[in-house]
From TrEMBL:
It catalyses: (R)-5-phosphomevalonate = (2E)-3-methyl-5-phosphooxypent-2-enoate + H2O. Belongs to the AcnX type II large subunit family. GO terms for molecular function: lyase activity. Keywords: Iron, Isoprene biosynthesis, Lyase. Pathway: Isoprenoid biosynthesis; isopentenyl diphosphate biosynthesis via mevalonate pathway. Component of a hydro-lyase that catalyzes the dehydration of mevalonate 5-phosphate (MVA5P) to form trans-anhydromevalonate 5-phosphate (tAHMP). Involved in the archaeal mevalonate (MVA) pathway, which provides fundamental precursors for isoprenoid biosynthesis, such as isopentenyl diphosphate (IPP) and dimethylallyl diphosphate (DMAPP). This is Phosphomevalonate dehydratase large subunit. It is an enzyme of class 4 (lyase). It comes from the Archaea. Its EC number is 4.2.1.182. Heterodimer composed of a large subunit (PMDh-L) and a small subunit (PMDh-S). Residues 1-387 form the Phosphomevalonate dehydratase large subunit-like domain.
Amino acid sequence: MYLTKEEEQILNGEAGETLRQAIEILVALGDIYGADSLIPIKSAQIAGVSYKTIGDAGLEWISDLEGQVKVPSILNPAGMDLEDWGRLKISPEFAEKQKAIVQAYKKLGIRCECTCTPYTLEGFSVGYGDHLAWSESSAISYANSVIGARTNREGGPSALSAALLGKTANYGFHLEENRTPEVSIRVECPLKESDYGALGYVAGKIIGSQVPIFRLKDAPEKDELKTLGAAMAASGAVALYHVEGVTPEACRLGFEEPEEKIIIERSQLDEVYESRGRACKEPELITIGCPHCSAVELKKAAELLKGKAVSKETWIFTSRELANRYPEYVRSIEESGAKVVCDTCMVVSPATNSYSCVMVNSGKAFAYLPGMCGAESVYGNMETCIEEATGGKRKKAGGSY
């Protein structure tokens, strides 16, 4: 792999040990995947934030790093709400370690809004063709597919290394020839909202890491594209997909039809919804927002919960920026007894480990919860989740329940 004179000096340690380690990681990846050089990136999104997933070893490594990131950089969800960790019964010991991790990243100049939807934040803009180093699976999918930016599935260390250098290795989805569809997926039935999560869950299991192009009856909204990509990245390893007539590269480039063709039937999606009979019949916890809820999704949750009271523990996850931007939605949701939680999610928080059965409206969470939290997952749309949470129970006059 070609390195400039400055990059060779960094690799030789002339810019300090932190940057030497960073470029060593990127060069090793470049050698493995056949990169010709390092290329500049516009931004980085860094996983490996929750103390639940990285532990003391990760905290020690991050704390030893020095310097400042060269491009706008932001963190993935942490293991708790950083401002109100007690409400999900996080232990003080965990909270102390989690705060130390976030502070270590902050010392490097990284923005500490912890979210899997950085593309919703002000001042963190991403455009078509931008080269990135992002490491959260659903954010990668959204950036590549819905925005038309270019990023590989970075690990936490490689994304952090890219942030510190302002560069990443030029291979994989940074190259146009690797962004061509490999399989065509046709869905004949109409789809709505959580159907896209079920579709992503089914499709990811079938195609693994291939690049699909979808032929759909209806044009999905951005939140529906978000949930489709998130589910495929979790049940498979899909980092890029196209939707005919919808996503930017499918519209601009006009791909040829792939030889491999798949048809996904309504019955396959129904099997995901029917998980309740196969797993747990009585969810103890209801969670919404994986990836983090958009403003549209927060508004819908607020409308569905208006005048109702939850009778089960209910968590709705979003970024802190959106929660602060739409306090009326948060207030309406929390008047029901549900909790709006920021900075974390049900997958990376240890709080979820206390439950054996969790209902979700996310194909990503549906895929991850059994392995990462030891909980059975049940799938439903947002309306079903809210109905399960409230049992149809409404507030009585005067605000009591």
